[in-house]
Amino acid sequence: MKKRFSWFRAFIPRYISNEKMVFTIYEKMRRNKIPLILDILTIGKLRNKLSTKAILQHRDENAAFFHMHPKFYVQGEYIENQPEWQSVKYGRRKSSMQYSGCEILAVANALNSLGAALSADGLADLIKHFEEDGMCMDGNIGTSPIALREYLESRGYSTEYSFTKDVQKIDDMGRRYDTLIVFAYNNKYDIGAMIHTVCITKDAGGGFVIHNASRKTADGKYRASKSYPSLSDAICDIGRNQKSRSIMFMGIKKV
Fold it and tell me: Hey, how many other C-beta atoms are within 10 angstroms of the C-beta on 25?
């Protein structure tokens, strides 16, 4: 029984290609292009239904929260503490920035790395942007990585993305970019370990550091990861288990 269960949990990472995961699942949910039978069986729960009124209300509430707690989000500092973001709104039903906001935090961290750190109001606007265009299943499975790329390119950045599993190709992109966003399985053998999206930056020594990957200091504060010698080494350890695997990753540069 245990073996069968393990096979079932490994089915998506093993048999669904990275391209299909992004374009057939995430992008179709983003654009509400859900097959009719699935729409009927799930009573429309796979669709985005957040109203414009709710999006605007979330934007105002999030901006107010950031201003009322100025130490919670500090412009120019990397965001490492997603588990503490339960009070920041994103999507509906179970969704919040704590539950499924990792893609948005990865974009905010990437902008910080690129010298364009967001203000508190700017971060509230970023969340609003992806509620309007990007979230999937009302945010309950996060945000399409294609929406992240489109947003960054609309801001004037150059991006290069790949679905490859080839270590040499991954590390080649790592050599060419100082700021990357990685959309990955926490455990390539177990979809139950979920998907996580992080920003990875290079440190002064050329090593790769993961941001917002649930690392803590001895006193319980969240921090960036240790420095890894290559991009592939960093990706492999996103889930702190040496079993993570990228689905899609992209390098980002100023034009």
Answer: 17
- What tens digit of pLDDT does each residue of 67-110 get? 999 999 999 999 999 999 999 999 999 999 999 999 999 999 99
3-state secondary structure of 136: coil
Rounded to an integer, the average pLDDT of 135-139 is 98
**Quick one: pLDDT at residue 8?**
75
State the burial class of residue 104 (Cβ atoms within 10 Å of its Cβ: 0-12, 13-18, 19+): buried
Using an 8 Å Cβ cutoff, are 81 and 222 in contact? Answer: yes
Integer Cα distance of 100 and 82 in angstroms: 9
Residue 157 has a CB neighbour count (10 Å cut-off) of 18
- Which among 99, 117, 97, 130 is positioned nearest to 179, based on CA atoms? 117
- Please, are residues 198 and 213 in contact by the beta-carbon 8 Å criterion? yes
Which two three-digit tokens encode residue 77? 């500092």
Q: Which residues pair with 160 in a beta bridge?
A: 251
Q: Tokens in use for 242?
A: 């040496």
CA 164 to CA 95: how far, in whole Å?
Answer: 29
State the chain's mean pLDDT as an integer.
96
